[in-house]
């Protein structure tokens, strides 16, 4: 997620202090993406360096609010127009962990999947409970939580498919054929 663009989008609503930007971000995302005040501050400093935001020095408030510059508006417009690139998802730690585990000696892939499934079910329970607590006029929070629910449900279905593939690999002995060699998953307690 781009903290840079999130802050630009929040500033498009109007001037805001560093602290208020953090509060607005937390409210918008229903506090599902941790963002500390240091991240907000350092991101604003970089945005200022890049002339995308500036301080409103005409404001008499103790904490001078930030505002978008013309370049900041233009950058935000480019971000709104650009689709999100999902190719980065292949670098997900869980995907890499399971891909490595199937060929790692001594790793019980089934146990790894069961632990992950339990953690995902707890997360789904917590997010669903949080979604029920969101007020009907909090559209942004509802959308963010719905995304978490759908993504968690999809990951649980994927874990089921992985477990089925591992079980199938255990039950199917390796055979020599004219087909190109494909590495068979190595699962603890299963000899190849």
Alpha-beta classification: mainly alpha
Average pLDDT for all residues: 84
Distance between the termini: 42 Å
Q: Strand content of the residues, in percent?
A: under 5%
Q: Unreliable segments (pLDDT under 50, ≥5 consecutive)? A: 176-192
Question: How many alpha or pi helices?
Answer: 7
Counting structural domains, the number is 2
Q: Helix proportion of residues, in percent?
A: 55-70%
Order of helices and strands: HHHEEHHHH
Descriptive report:
- The protein starts with a helix and ends in a 21-residue tail after the last helix.
- α1 crosses α4 (about 70-80), α2 (about 20-30) crosses α3 and α6 packs antiparallel against α7.
- Helices cover about 60% and strands about 5% of the residues.
- The longest helix has about 35 residues, at about 140-170.
- It has two domains: about 5-85, Arc Repressor Mutant, subunit A; about 90-170.
- With about 190 residues, it is mostly helical.
- The chain has helices at about 5-10, 20-30, 35-50, 70-80, 95-100, 110-135, 140-170; strands at about 55, 65-70.
Structural features:
single chain, 192 residues, mainly alpha, Arc Repressor Mutant, subunit A, two-stranded antiparallel ribbon
């Amino acid at each position: 997620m781009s903290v840079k663009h999130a802050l630009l989008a929040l500033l498009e609503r109007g001037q805001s202090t560093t602290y208020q930007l953090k509060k607005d971000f937390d409210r918008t995302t229903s506090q599902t993406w941790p963002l500390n005040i240091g991240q907000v501050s350092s991101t604003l400093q970089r945005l200022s360096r890049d002339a995308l935001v500036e301080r409103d020095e005409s404001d008499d408030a103790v904490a001078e609010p930030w505002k978008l510059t013309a370049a900041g508006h233009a950058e935000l417009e480019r971000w709104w127009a650009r689709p999100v690139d999902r190719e980065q998802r292949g670098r997900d730690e869980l995907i890499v962990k399971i891909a490595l585990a199937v060929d790692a000696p001594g790793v019980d892939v089934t146990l790894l999947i069961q632990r992950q499934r339990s953690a995902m079910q707890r997360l789904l329970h917590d997010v669903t409970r949080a979604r029920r607590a969101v007020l009907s006029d909090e559209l942004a929070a509802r959308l963010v939580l719905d995304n978490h629910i759908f993504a968690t449900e999809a990951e649980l279905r994927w874990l089921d498919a992985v477990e089925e593939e591992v079980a199938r690999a255990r039950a199917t002995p390796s055979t020599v054929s004219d087909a190109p060699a494909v590495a068979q998953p190595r699962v603890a307690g299963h000899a190849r």
